[in-house]
Amino acid sequence: MILYKSLTHSKDEFTTHEPGVVRMYTCGPTVYHFAHIGNLRSYIMEDVLEKYLRYAGYRVDRVMNITDVGHLSSDADTGEDKMLKGAKREHKSVMEIAKYYTDAFFADCGKLNIRIPDTVVPATSRIPDFIEMVSRLLEKGYAYEAGGNVYFDTSKLDEYYVFNKHDAEDLAEGVREGVGVDVNKKNKADFVLWFTKSKFEDQELKWESPWGLGYPGWHIECSAISVKELGEYLDLHCGGIDNAFPHHTNEIAQSEAYLGHPWCPQWFHVLHLNTDKGKMSKSSGEFLTVSLLEEKGYDPLVYRFFCLQSHYRKSLVFSWDALDNAVAAYDKLIAKIAALKDEGPDDEDGKAVLRARFNEAMSNDLNTSLGITALYDVLKAPISGKAKLSLIAEFDTVLSLGLLDRSAKYNEKAKQKAATPSSEEGDPRVLALIAERAEAKKAKNYARADEIRNALAAEGITLIDTPQGTTYKIG
Ligand code: AMP
Ligand code: ZN
Asked: Which domains does the chain have, with CATH numbers?
């Protein structure tokens, strides 16, 4: 597989430290609010990546954290703790908020056919591991205590800005968030590993540590959880592009300083979902959720289809019109699949050609829109309905668009509709025969009337004579 790598800014062969095994880490949600459909774009694309790697024959060990502590409203260690903000907003405890929105996130994942990683770790469950990592960084000289907090010393690294050449001025505090400069920091780029002196006296969750009662910085959780669960060599790390800096940059700094060697060569960043007002974000308060899409009558899987129609490395602009276009295309696709008959030979040679097209698309930096084109190619191909259905099922283990489920539901609905026709609705052929029978009866041609009734009965269609006329039911 060829994958774009954020560290080298180039498309290269995907590699693993251990042959056949992918150790994959995903930055999980900050659970102080519902995930918005922008967040979920990232999780959908990461899900397709995981499933494609499995389809390609890898074993994938995937771990995700849940950020339930330490993420401040600015990613650069300033502002209020997001969890506390959520708790205040809803007059609940931080842990109540965390549980509620973690469950809501999993429910959204279920609706979008996103597989939840086997290992999901809330940050608050791993405080001793964070303390251990911070202690080691202090011992090795990569960290220092100042003003009660523990900071990572970025001047100790040969290269800190690993993804992009940032201008240190970008990090100027106070400019972005309206808060004062942190005078404890030796270098502007330094970041907090452990807080004891926070600006919020009412910080709800605090733990004992060698540096006093406090709580971890946001970045340390991903480094510590990943190293503990997936070992010293990570193959693939995922997240939205806003995580590249400072979060992932800081994760790399901490992990490599702790381990003493390179940590993860492949970083998969999903570009943002934007609206006409810019990036969709939780903090702006204006965002769309899966529940809202459902309330408006959209199938969540149509949103997944919408995401898969474009490449993960391009920003995607959301609009209701664009979503409606996706609905039309998805419905058409489902109707075509629903019309297939599970009959005929299982043409392995024909399938191999089509499978190769799907692989060519997906193994080229996860080109999902061409992957969907390969799906349309299956529908058009000169192979049997049975062969088509089996290939569609196979591709859908990766795309997870619910193709067979929704087409079965489509057929079920069509059957129900045919079984309960109103005077205006129903199968036109059956309605024409009913009309002919009524004419025959009027003309006292009972033999023809009975013939029609019996012919329909042989097809499993029962006629029902009522004072208002004749209707029918199937079965
Ligand atoms: P958070 O819950 O804020 O920690 O973010 C969860 C994930 O969503 C992270 O990987 C973010 O990078 C990603 N993310 C945030 N906003 C967007 C967006 N508008 N489009 C795509 N991904 C996003
Ligand atoms: Zn992370």
From this structure: 2-270 (3.40.50.620), 295-411 (no CATH), 420-474 (no CATH)
